[in-house]
Amino acid sequence: MPNVRLVIEYDGSHFHGWQMQPGVRTIEGEIERVLEMVLREKIHPVYASGRTDAGVHARGQVINFFTSQEQPDVLRVAHSLSNILRGQLSVLQADIVPDDFNSRYSSVSKQYTYSILNRLGPAVLDYGKVWYIGSKLDPQRMNEEAKAVIGEHDFTSFRGTGCNAKTPVKTILESEVLVDGPFIRYRVVGTGFLKHMVRNLAGTLVDLSRDFLSLKSMGAILAARDRKQAGVTAPAHGLCLDWVRYKDESAAGAAR
Amino acid sequence: MPNVRLVIEYDGSHFHGWQMQPGVRTIEGEIERVLEMVLREKIHPVYASGRTDAGVHARGQVINFFTSQEQPDVLRVAHSLSNILRGQLSVLQADIVPDDFNSRYSSVSKQYTYSILNRLGPAVLDYGKVWYIGSKLDPQRMNEEAKAVIGEHDFTSFRGTGCNAKTPVKTILESEVLVDGPFIRYRVVGTGFLKHMVRNLAGTLVDLSRDFLSLKSMGAILAARDRKQAGVTAPAHGLCLDWVRYKDESAAGAAR
Prior knowledge:
2 copies of one chain form a homodimer.
Chain A: E1 3-10, H1 27-39, E2 47-48, E3 57-66, H2 74-84, E4 89-97, E5 107-117, E6 131-132, H3 139-147, E7 151-154, E8 169-180, E9 183-190, H4 197-209, H5 218-224, E10 239-246, E11 252-253
Parallel strand pairs in A: 3-10, 5-6
Antiparallel strand pairs in A: 1-3, 1-4, 2-3, 5-9, 5-10, 7-8, 8-9, 10-11
Helix pairs in contact in A: 1-2, 3-4
């Protein structure tokens, strides 16, 4: 059975997260609905590099599925998904990959960007894509604190409730805060992430900058291994999965 | 009477252009409606650096108006506009300026960016903010052609019908095409622009890249002084007014 891989962009505000659930419109559910129309067979499961939370966006999510069609027209699949889910989901790349490719287990690393809009007026052109904070933040300080999580650490302080990962130890490869006009962007690359981990890191960087926390550094919060010492969970709509990288190839995804 | 200047961002898709017209929702009309509520007096006219076409966005439009209130609370005006027109218009800066300041006539230059999305899948996260073109364009060639309009020229070939400017001669200070991930962005700075001029320049750069035109260079099209020799008028929703610059000060606006 051919193994089809798609790189997709989606606006998380149109879906109740990735995972199929009865009675709600999810990314997995909508993709499977369209695939059944196009390929004339039930496609399940559709694998993803990771399940994004409700409201989280993606510019380069990677998914794969198997079809019984011997020579599936992957471009037709791509155009059908992009057209039927217009403005909500778009296919950026479509190809047939080896049988042993799995979008989740074959991944080596992935990048998320958390976007904050920090200025007088709330978001308009980036409405629903950024966390608006009117009070002045200190991006230089946030960048210094962001560096502290690089490496292999126990991320218990940044682990969301209900996380079912076997271990709270994760490896962060890159972590920095960049100023981009009125935006402050937290960019983080890791081999894997706990539930809500990026949103908790972003919220903690903001709360450190606002001086809302008892512990005054990312290092101290990390060492505490206590979720209560970290900051707020930043809202889902500021987060975007940029790309996923696989063995022996460059990153799949739209962002740089 | 105090002269109040505001720097504003807006999403052009929510309005029928700048200028007040009976029976339609315009940016000028909505601003005057809110100002009357906040300042408890009829405010008219509200001056703008220029009237953007219906559908065109702004990240740094500059406007000004006079009020009879001796000490107007400009921050309250800013917050009221941003809150009442939430998601549609936002005030980025508010101050009181000298009487002789006029957002249109005091301006020295302004920058527009025309954004094209050039990849397999249509826009999702930038839906309504970019012109989606699926066929592969040649941004290097577009950049070379874009340079040809720098300087003082007769822009008759790029003048929209109904343009009431006294002369078709305009001065372009910067003109370039940049690649930004899957986006191709045409950035142009000028002292002033004719009606539809930036959209006609962007459409012509695209049509030159697609080899849709008889004349094969921007220079030849400019020299022809004939609108029929230039390319298509690019759709309004890909265009954004980034900033407006004034004498003796830096650019007012959100973009870099």
